[in-house]
């Protein structure tokens, strides 16, 4: 992922509650969907207009195809209570990539089978199908190789741990190694996944370069996994996972444009070799909550923006660059450094205040991994 890219629209919101759409086109299918939606949170039930008088709190449509086209990528998952063939025809033109496509599950209107059809791992369709099967008594139909063979899938593990998969094409290579019980190496300096992967990974390395030196019995470079928030030159055979570890504190003058905020943000992270996809929160003082440039920058990056009041910011210790001018104007010694540390749960400030003409910025790393230093890439 280069510095000009931002987080994908769906996978970035690591803490938000998933929004699921139920779809039915027959009275029997709608009855089944209606009976299940009360057992799962955040469900929107879509039904034909002719059925709106028989069910409460539903979203009606005149055209199934048109409505689905409009909202398909607005939901984290879709459950269709109808024939699989109908669903395949309806979603075929909407599919983009497994890293961004929503989960798609199909259940026949008799409630006999619950099929994970699309985005089984990263999108969560396998888990959703199993949950619905448990609630309804249906038979879950899961066809992904790792699940069929009762093996761990690296994309599932990454998703469950809120990690961004930077190069999804490498997923298949790693999962194939797991299925074939072949060794892969892992560079995981903060031990996010190492314990979960003990039975699959027999080679832990202290640097990326060390990992790239290892070959298998045939003399081929051994596939590897990197779990880190730092960037660097890496081999295409390596799966790169970005944990949600970084927070960015921001300050700006009034009416600062989003472009100037984004320019400093991307410049500093590239310069310091930190992954944008490991940034899970932006933060500032509540006096800036109505700054359109700051909110626009948050939207363009698709990273949540949080605001703290002045009393909370004043209580933060370990400020490296207090500002008397800032204290005189808004009553606190620091905005960006204090906000970054707070957002990281009192984490370690790893980039002290940086600035351009109208923007200040600081970066912190979450406290659970900030106690020690790890080998660099």
What CATH first level of the largest domain would be assigned? Alpha Beta
The CATH architecture of the largest domain: 3-Layer(aba) Sandwich
Largest sheet: 7 strands, mixed
User: How do the helices and strands follow one another from N- to C-terminus?
Assistant: EHEEHEHEEHEHHEHEEHEEEHEHEHHHEE
Termini separation (Å)? 16 Å
The percent of residues in helical segments reads 25-40%
How many E strands? Answer: 17
Global mean pLDDT: 85
CATH topology of the largest domain: Rossmann fold
- Give the strand order of the largest sheet, numbering strands 1, 2, ... along the chain: 3-2-1-4-5-6-7
Radius of gyration: 24 Å
Shape: flat
Structural class: alpha/beta
Number of distinct helices: 13
Q: Which residue ranges are poorly predicted, with pLDDT under 50 across at least 5 consecutive positions? A: 1-15, 370-377
How are the elements arranged and paired?
Blueprint: E1 20-24, H1 27-37, E2 43-48, E3 59-61, H2 64-71, E4 77-81, H3 84-91, E5 103-107, E6 113-118, H4 125-136, E7 139-141, H5 145-148, H6 154-160, E8 164-165, H7 171-179, E9 184-187, E10 201-204, H8 208-212, E11 224-227, E12 238-242, E13 246-252, H9 258-271, E14 279-285, H10 292-301, E15 305-308, H11 310-314, H12 324-330, H13 336-343, E16 348-355, E17 359-365
Parallel strand pairs: 1-2, 1-4, 2-3, 4-5, 6-7, 9-10, 9-11, 11-12, 13-14, 14-15
Antiparallel strand pairs: 5-6, 8-12, 13-17, 16-17
């Amino acid at each position: 992922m280069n510095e000009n890219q931002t987080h994908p629209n769906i996978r970035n919101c690591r803490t938000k509650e998933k929004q699921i759409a139920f779809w039915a086109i027959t009275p029997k299918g709608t009855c089944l969907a209606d009976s299940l939606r009360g057992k799962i949170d955040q469900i929107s039930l879509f039904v034909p207009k002719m059925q709106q008088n028989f069910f409460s709190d539903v979203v009606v449509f005149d055209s199934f195809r048109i409505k689905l086209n409009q909202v398909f990528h607005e939901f984290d998952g879709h459950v269709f209570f109808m024939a699989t063939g109908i669903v395949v025809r309806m979603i075929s033109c909407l599919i983009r990539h497994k890293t961004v496509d929503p989960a798609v599950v199909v259940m026949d209107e008799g409630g006999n089978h619950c099929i994970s059809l699309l985005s089984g791992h990263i999108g969560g369709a396998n888990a959703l199908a199993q949950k619905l099967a448990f609630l309804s008594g249906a038979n879950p139909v899961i066809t992904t190789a790792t699940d069929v063979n009762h093996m761990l899938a690296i994309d599932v593990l990454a998703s469950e741990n809120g990690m961004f998969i930077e190069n999804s094409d490498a997923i298949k290579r790693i999962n194939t190694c797991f299925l074939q019980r072949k060794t892969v190496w892992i560079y995981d300096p903060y031990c996010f996944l190492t314990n979960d992967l003990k039975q699959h990974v027999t080679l832990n390395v202290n640097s990326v370069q060390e990992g790239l030196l290892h070959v298998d019995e045939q003399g081929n470079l051994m596939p590897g996994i990197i779990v880190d928030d730092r960037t660097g030159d890496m081999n295409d055979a390596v799966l790169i996972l970005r944990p949600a570890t970084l927070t960015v504190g921001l300050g700006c003058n009034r009416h600062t444009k989003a472009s100037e905020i984004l320019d400093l943000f991307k410049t500093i992270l590239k310069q310091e070799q930190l992954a944008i996809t490991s940034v899970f929160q932006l933060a500032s003082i509540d006096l800036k909550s109505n700054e359109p440039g700051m909110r626009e920058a948050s939207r363009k990056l698709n990273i949540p923006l949080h605001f703290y009041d002045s009393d909370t910011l004043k209580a933060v210790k370990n400020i490296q660059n207090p500002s008397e001018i800032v204290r005189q104007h808004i009553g606190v010694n620091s905005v960006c450094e204090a906000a970054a540390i707070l957002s990281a749960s009192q984490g370690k400030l790893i980039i002290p205040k940086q600035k351009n003409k109208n923007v200040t910025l600081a970066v912190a790393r979450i406290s659970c991994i900030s106690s020690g230093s790890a080998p660099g890439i």
